[in-house]
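Entry type: protein chain
Record version: 2
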Amino acid sequence: MRFALSSWLPRAAVALLVAGAAVVAYREGGGADTRVPPPRPGEAPVTKEARDPGHGAEAYEVTTRLVEALGDARLDVPALGAAQQSMQGYWRKMRDPWVRLSGVAGDLAMTIALRTSRDFETQYSVPVPGGDTWVPKARVWNMNEGSFDQREAIFAPSPATLAFRIELPPHPRLRFAPAVVAPLSATTVFDVTVVDAGGAEHEVSRTRIQGGDARKWVDSDIDLAPWGGQRVELRLHTATDKPAAFEKRWLPPVSDDADAGAPPPDARPAEPPALPSLALALWGEPVILAKEPTRVPYDVLWVVVDALRPDVAASLHDPADDAAKLAAPRPPIDALLPSVPGLMPGIDRLAARGVHFTRAWSAGAWTRPGTLAMLTGERSSELGIDTLAWLLPVEAVSRYYASDPPLLPLVLRRDGVATAAFVNNFFMAGYVAVGVDMGFDRVTDHRYRARDTAEITRDAVDWMEANAGTRFFLFVNYNSPHEPYDPPKELLARVPPPPAGPRDRQVRAYMAEGAKDDAAIGTLLDELDKLGLTRSTLVVVTSDHGETLSAAHNAYGLEHMPMRFHHAVGNFEETTRVPIVLALPGVVDGGRAVTDRVRNVDLAPTVLELEGLEADPRMSGRSLMPLVRGVKEPEPRVVVTEGRGSRSILWDRWRLVVHETPGYDDGLYDLQDDPGERRNVARLRPDVLAEMHARLAAAVANVPAADAPAATQGPGALPTVHLRFAGAGAVHRVSGALVVGDGKHGATILLDPFGVARDTLRVDGPRIDFAMATAADALVGFDLRIDPPGAPVAWTLFLDDAPWPDHATFAGPFGLPAVAARAGIAGDDARAEVYAARFPVVDPSRDLGVFVTRDRPGEAPAAGPASDADQASGASEMQRVLQEWGYAHGSH
């Protein structure tokens, strides 16, 4: 007999009871290791010895982003119109693309970068073939030297009051970074006030920014613990105070017209210019955090070294692969770098304790598509972002933002993770024509030719120290191996001359530049150790693309751009092959090498699996964890790389490169005979050329090739959705239709009946139609497996040919009334509602409805409905627990 909870206890109450018991057991039973919060102002940092070692499951996580709460806030910004006029000339800003707000709230939510370097911007100039010089416009390229700190912020020109009605979590903290966009003749005051449940006002913070200290974020961390658990009004107020004593120095106008560079010294005024009295004030990254068991288990430190090839690091060489290449009929010559032990000790050290992939490729032959691929699990073309044009059309960028792309920083921050990026990568700035916003709370861009590595490392270390007690995703993007190569002399001396090292001095300089960034990686790893975070942090080291170094590719490509010592216009093996190293103690470890073919689009799904989250069904990448665990896949993963006006596909021993612009022939290379891609055999092998074109077309469309092995996934290979119908002891006709997918991305459906004949189910493409009868004393239904697992499922159900009754759909391990999953499984809320390790106890003689469960990602498949003995045992146990707690009849 089913334990009929609904007759005497609301299902929601049972859920709360069980959840409460789980939390108590977790906290008190040793499942949650404590994480130490960041030190409050004036407190000493917490030492490594004071930290609780092990996988830290408890940390501060973001519970409310105030930018996202603006729509429900009381906003009093009387000077907004005048401030918007003053801000028209400031171009390093954009409306927040990830916050869907309208009206005044939408006007206040912005992403804005402040030039935090105090020296003047230096105008870039680039020599081009023919002896000319190209001077890129900063408003297009954002390439002027300097440091630019971009943050999600609320615009609050003085005077302004932003009032939020918020239910504060226990042990809350408020973090924010006030700033002023332009110098002014007065001090700007930022006040934080809490109005408690009784109406009493408490000023908890005051920050004063002097008139000459504009364009600098002031990171602040405020303890709100006295009001934890209360519903309060949180007020953020900006005002101006008396004029400040002003330094006699030249200050750029609010327009920040960087295209002009710095004025000559004799043009600087002896006295400061007249300054506005209106404070263009910002509340940067205002969030509320709480310390509790986090929704994701691990921090992430993700390091990218722009243009770094895997063969720069000795640990990433595959000796067998190297030997085969050198023994080929056409050896690679300088397309394969020699192994130089000790040159890259940071990466070598990480590979020794983690897992590295010896055959990994990027989905992009240059920075923007390569970075998007690793952070979204999709190629740029799938995202609608062109890989040919440097400059992106406004409509394409608008479609990208409107599509809510599956950016890893966005996915993680919606689960309470603090996200930040410290980079030298102007393609990550959405306010310029070449870039797009990639979903970080903060992006600090250090645009320097040589000092950027030190600046990035310093900021990343400081940020880790400040967020050591917070669940975080930290993205660090170095740029040293990117042309032009100008390494420190001591690092260049570590690259041996031939034959142990490369013959070409430029190639040796390239390797030395890699060593420069490797030293910075070592510093970051040391910092994790120092903070006691190594055991709870997933470390990813990779690159956005490789670099073309072979003399065989010393040619010119699109727009007469050189191929050698560059990328983008080339689409060769050496241009697209990248390092991938993952390390997470106890999970991804052992110093193992994985030789299976992988792509950087596989990284985002891998991180999500490790964090216990679903990969977005739009992601064409697949988690690397099956390969890490030693699972052999039926065929190698398809590698497609997109360059500027070109696409390539790698399959078996062949690589095909096709060009989308006229004047360029297809390239077909036999990588077994010619691993350096020095001989194009497209005209000699028309049969292979035709086959490779067909394979590329299938891969771009994300459909299997004609000869792909049939789906062989066993019951445990994909998570299963269980649908079971109960008729309350009567025979009812249940029917309906399910539609799988979003109509844009393909999905494979595997269907197994349960208690009914197979002919009661019919699959037609993405649609499943069914009609069956319930049994008096048994459940009937079917199991559904979908590839990709996260593809949405929508259903329309009928009971005795009438619309399905309200409140007759139940979900999850306790069979609670479905809310998010009432009409299907689409999105995180619905998936969370149906996750179950076991099917609920159901009594088909008394219960009427459909019961839905789904396996959790990364866990063993959920068992089907329990046996009668199991049901009786489970019902009895639940009865005893509820009686002991005083919730059931017969309790004492």
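Comment: Residues 505-531 form the longest helix (27 residues).
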